[in-house]
Structure formats: structure tokens, C-alpha cells
Design goal:
By secondary structure, the chain is mainly beta. The chain is built from one helix and three strands, in the order ββαβ. It has a three-stranded antiparallel beta sheet, with no helix packed on it. Strand 1 and strand 2 form a beta hairpin. The chain is globular, with a radius of gyration of 21 Å. The protein starts with a strand and ends in a 34-residue tail after the last strand.
Length: 77
């Protein structure tokens, strides 16, 4: 079930709402959990995919580059 994150524009509180896609499409009737306001903005943050397989992605040029910036420590500050 998707989790939607909201930010209250009145009090600044962030909270999550679990709802099906169908419920979201039909229009959620959400109030701020902190102050009860309906002045909310949906927040689009990162996401994670659980399961699957971990992979190590390296570009051809970075395999033996000596760290960030190809070993040039002046760009790592």
C-alpha cells in the first residue's frame, strides 16, 4: 500500500498517510494530525525498492581512479 507524505502549510508538521491508489484517485479527505488544518501540500520524496539484487555500478573511467575526482584531492573539499 502506498504511503503519501504531506506537509501542513499552517503549522509546518510533516506526516504520512497510507492509502490505496484507488482511495487517492477518489480524493483523500486529509487533515493535519497536529493542528487539524486542511491546508496541506503533498511532498514527493525518495523511494526504495525492496527485494531484488544489489549491484555495483562503476563507469569504465572510475574503476581505478583513486577516490573522488579521480584522486584529485582539491575537488573533494
Amino acid at each position: 500500500m502506498p504511503i503519501y507524505e504531506f506537509h501542513c502549510k499552517d503549522c509546518g508538521y510533516y506526516f504520512d498517510v497510507k492509502a490505496t491508489v484507488k482511495e487517492k484517485e477518489e480524493g483523500l479527505k486529509i487533515h493535519c494530525e497536529q493542528c487539524g488544518s486542511e491546508n496541506l501540500q503533498q511532498v514527493f520524496g525518495g523511494f526504495a525498492i525492496l527485494g531484488g539484487q544489489a549491484i555495483n555500478v562503476k563507469s569504465r573511467d572510475s574503476q581505478n581512479s583513486g577516490g573522488c575526482c579521480g584522486g584529485n584531492s582539491s575537488c573533494c573539499s
